[in-house]
Amino acid sequence: MLQIPEIPNSASVSHVASRDPVTLTGRRLNRLLKHATPADRALLAHGLAQGTVWVHPLTRGQAARLTKASSGYIGTVARLSERERMRVARSELALSHLHRNPQTRMCRFPASGSSWESLARGAATKRLIVSSSESVRSG
User: What is the 3-state secondary structure (H, E, C) of 38-90?
Assistant: First the structure.
């Protein structure tokens, strides 16, 4: 039987519903499931469905499987700022575009002339370095 230490004197994951729900982390759930029998898994699923077992927080993989979301898209959303996530939620930004073109993300610093000029110098320097190294390789 699957033993969960968080449930005192338990032989399985099923317990009296009047108790507070047992909360497991997603990582703990993964470790428990590695050694679980089919019966243990069924009891755990029943506990989850009845609300006597909670999983919080889920791992990113668990959340992706539960929602059938792309793990790549979840990673893209995780890298966005709160403002950008709000714009995606309001359909002002296309998640697919941000995923394919991460360099089009919004800039997080003020648009002062010196900031933009220093960025342009840095980009130009990078292009020169890349161009010179490509010419050395091709030559």
Answer: HHHHHHHHHHHHHCCEEECCCCHHHHHHHHCCCHHHHHHHHHCCHHHHHHHHC
